[in-house]
Amino acid sequence: MSNPWFGRKRIGFGIRPTGGMGWLVTIVWAVLAMTAIGPQLVAFDAALPLDAGPVLDGWRLAYESWGRLDADGRNAILICRALTSNCHVTSAGQQGVAPGWWEQVVGPGKVIDTDRFFVVCMDTLAGLHGSSGPSAPQPGSSRPYGMRFPPVTFADSVRAQRRLAEHLGIRRFRMVAGGCVGAMQALQWGLDFPEMVGGVAAISIRMAPSTYALALWSVVRRAIQLDPEWRGGDYYDGPTPGQGLGLATVIGLLHWMDMETFETRYGRRRRSDAMTFDPDFEVEHMLSGVVERAGGKVDPNSMIYTTRAADYFDVGDRIAAIADGRERPPHLVMNYSRDARYPPEEGRRLADALSKAGIATTEIAFDSPIAHGGFLIDQQSVLEPIARFMASLNPG
User: Which domain does 240 fall in, by range?
Assistant: First the structure.
């Protein structure tokens, strides 16, 4: 490909956090993003084999979409959801519709323009919208699967998403994009179904989670499972294990922002002069609020399944073994400088591996104090790189 945007390029961007307290609203909104606008749910009868061994004989997958699909089915863009984000990416400028979690990126006249493209966000298996998973009805039973649902991988979810894309009449995605576990899905799309993808934009990503990340996800899951209301995952007819989910959420939040951000925003400011074991420091009040608001926003079992799918994600050997002669889409890899779990050096390793496999790749490192959640918290950071990347893609 002769486009000057490609050819294994490394680009650095500097980012300064915006002033005021809007950043905190954005963090909590991104972590607990839900909306009254319900997605569409599509049921499939055809069997879906899973990497763990079982086969789903009947399954369903949720999605939400904006814009209009062209007659040739080639103007679609897929946005892959992040860990706690749902399918509601944008309000698309509609009155009375709640903002989406990528509101500044997707919408009429925006970088991902819903006036030009058919934009769709698909759920994953074991996701948040009634897709097949622990919260869905178990065939032959009057109760949800709970933890009886088999483990799933993002490769499983991408196979399900491909069938949903075919159901919707999509022949090819101009781009597949996502951050965090959404980036894992985007990479999987480029590996498994390259003929359906014009370009892959992966944010906050590496070839496989580190041992540190495995440990973090293990603690997140344990926090949920130790809540007495979890009941082995069979809580759907009673109280949700909200305290466990809240604790899991703040554990994640501590790793989505870096130390400097906490110091700058909170420092050692206190609410009173009295000494107490109740929340006293401002940072404690913020974390307590996140815990209290977490219950009912995200299905705890979905968090367990999705983080486990992240554990099993590993595309290093797959990329190194590419030799099937299939044309592969160009990739854009973006990471944030202070992201301890997905640091820029790991983004470079991924980009190097893709380039060695013959895949046109651009890698960007953002110099930002926001760390892992930058693509949600400071959405301005990704606008220019995504715009340039999309302009370079073959419309196919």
Answer: 210-312
